[in-house]
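Hey,

The postdoc asked me to send both predictions to you directly instead of through the lab channel. I've kept everything plain text so nothing gets mangled by the mail client. Protein one:
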Amino acid sequence: MYTDILINATSYENRIALVENGNLLELHMERLSEKGSIGNIYLGRVARVLPGIDAAFVDIGLERTGFLYIDEALYIFSDNYQRLTSGHRLKKSCPHSLLTSPSIDTILREGQEILVQIAKEPIGSKGARLTGNITLPCRNLVFMPLTDHIGISRKIEDETTRQMLRDKIEALRPPGTGFIMRTVAENIGNDELEADMEYLLLLWDDILSKAGKVSVPGLIYKDLDMILRAVRDFFTENTQSLVIDNREVYEQLLTYAHTFAPHIKEKISYYDGDLPLFEKYRIEADINSALDKKVWLRSGGYIVIEPTEALTVIDVNTGRYVGASDLAETIFKTNMEAVGEIARQLRLRNLGGIIIIDFIDMEDEQQREELYTAFQEALRDDKSKVNILKLSEFGLVQMTRKRLSESLTQTMCEPCLYCGGDGFIKSRRTICHEIFRKISRDAGKIGGSRVTIKVHPHIADMLLNEETNTIEQLERRTNKRITVVPIADMHIKRYDVIWNQ
């Protein structure tokens, strides 16, 4: 669990680092030109209904339409929705009576106006994932106006405490509404709980009121910016300090904390040192290393992280580590050290989807079981939902990790201008030989006695040095004079063959 929250706030970008004992565990970034949208509520219009996949596309005013699955659409026609939206423009009866397992075209139609919330940000070419199950978080509670449910954070494990908290909410909540008690609320009193609940109920009324006035598609409610969410979502009883380097934002944080969490104000401090905050705490170096494929372990072993379109592959290697006793012990120690680093890298890089981890093969069944248990424990503090399978016969661990936003690499990097993100480009020699084949093929069809080849300087260097004999042979065979012209700003894969009279 992280113990410090460091916030670097500027006019163009906000960065939040969650740190434990000097080690960067998570990095959250928000560029003001690319603000996140998770939690935002929109009044949208159904653009297309797709019965074949039981889903619909919904226009919410963003660049790409959002995607709404049938399971998330059912909330829109719950009894709570009909009751709570009574008197608003959203009051609509379902086109057909709801069945036990209705299809998407029985509850939605094109052009229909619906209230939806972004559950997952647009990633790559995919639009936002939408839900009809509206949730409104506060410091201690999460309000679910369309769900008749009481939930308690799974991290509150004592059953007596869980039941006590459940009874507290039951005594205060309006009939038919849902609330989730957050971990930080384990020891709060009834007054604080009632204040949060009243705030959330008033917020929901305001959202419904705006829904009756806004044009479609339109934004109804925007969640807090990332820095205020840091206080709301990241600050726990284990957090020792929150340090921020922007005076104006520091004052905003104090105001927010005074209203919703007065007891944490003394842990919030302003940093005005000469050295930038992230450099003082060595965060910049950790960020840069999180973009590398290879991560070294303290023992001398290393892991290699290879994200692909469909999944992420992680390979564990002994590297320079030779151990002190036998091979089996060396392998086991390398794998066990890799477990903690892999768990940290998954959170830091925000890797999600299917993840395959290739640990070094171990024959001892007890060691395999210890490795699996250690990996589960290392992922215990990960807020994202993870599912892990035991080691396969090939020494592979298969797992999934839910990701709601782009990975660190997707946020900070862009595809290479040369390779387009493939990771490879044609070699210089391959391009030279392509040019030779083109000249050989066209020489008999085109007149003239001279040929000019315009290429990138690196290709020109190979043509005029390592391939000079081939060019001389080509000149004799085609009876053409070949001239190589380097062009500094030409793409390395591009070339122009110009035939001169």
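Protein two:
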Amino acid sequence: MTVGLRLDEAVWGLLHQALQHYRDNPRATDHLRHQLARLEQPLRIAIAGPWRSGKSTLLNAIMGEEVAPVDGVDGSTVFTWYEDGPQPSATAYANGQPPQELAIVKSATGMRVDLVGWRAGELRDIVVQWPTRTLRQVTLIDTPATGRDEQGRAPVMERVLRDADAVLYLTRDGRDSDLRVLETSRQSAVGQAAAVHVIMVLSRVDETGGGRIDGLLTARQLARRQHRDPRVNELSVHVVPCSGLLGLAGRILSESDYAVLAALARVPRPELETHLLSADRFLRGDLPVRLDTGVRAGLLDRLGLFGIRLATTLIRTGCDSRAKLSAELIRRSGLTELRESMARLLVDRRDTLKARSALAAVEALLRAEPGRGTEDLLGRVEQILVGAHEFRELRLLAALRTTRLGFDAELAAEAARLVGGDGVGLAARLGVEHDATVHRLWDVASEAQWRWRNRAEDPLLRLAQRRGAQVVVRSCEGMLAELAEGGR
């Protein structure tokens, strides 16, 4: 929401200026046309993080089906793309070879792609098409483990930042090594001005606190502390704790799984706990309930020891059906909060984030291939960044999720709504019915602008609060400008 030229319109114009500038450079023009095409494509969200951070499990949980990972080859350099399609399919892309269709094996809860015959390092990308609502607005990218090479570069993250519009960065605890990888995103003018495309996910939180039932609460407290950390705030718009394993288990929980868990829940808790001290005890011990090894292994694979403990506790305390247990596992996993954050901060802002990607691509091209006239185009990049109110809205939304601005809960909720935290449409921003008349929308927007302008000019408020109020005022001005334009 901006007064005058929207961010996506400004970036579209910049891309055409750059095309004209590089008209005699086929490689550069192909790259710029690719960026123009990306503006019309679904939002690309990469799931990135270090080894064993749970990337594939989280991707499965988001989709609600077991479609990742792709097995059968050393995937240290392979990016696997999951996009919407009319029927399940998989295509391999290797350097110097034409695309090749891959055989897929369907299962009751998803599919598996085998890559028998491919050698390590041959593949660059695998594109999986899968018909599901989740992929109608986004393309999900499962990436290799991040990290730095011997030269101190982060090659996987560098490609993530080139190819994706937004990132879910998984980390066990937000340690310095993860923050250093994320700092790769700030090595440009666009990265420094608009660090609004990363959500940090504290992953595998079912293992926090030694696997205790209250470990999820501990993880949420850690996420709040991380979000208050200025260094983390510079690199991400939100921090969300999430157990992909628990969330996926909730989404694919079957009636037979529930029946087994309910039988275990009928065992007195002290007696059952002795069998849940380790995976080996659960698999090979003499359980009070007759379960063959295959059933035990399947349950352990889907839920983990923590999930089995939690599920049996939930059944004892009222989750007396598969549907109830499934919903509670999903809620407690943090998956619901993560999906809501993705919707509000990423998917609803897809035009802004895709424009950001194009802006970053143009800046990188101008710096890599300088020449006569490139300084003027770099100046245009800076001008767009300075005027991009959309980025300020996203940064304010991130700040409002903490208490550091000092707004009370009611004011913070109103500010978040006005800058698009409940949806970017006019009715959602103004908190009115979706079929409200233009006259009503104008009155509500005008009143909000007046209230927040008073706060922005109140000398008794802290500077951070006045600046936050200025962002809200600008959003209100944008709404009024849109209504005036529509009226004309």
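Summary for protein two, as requested: DSSP finds 22 helices and eleven strands in the chain.

Thanks,
C.
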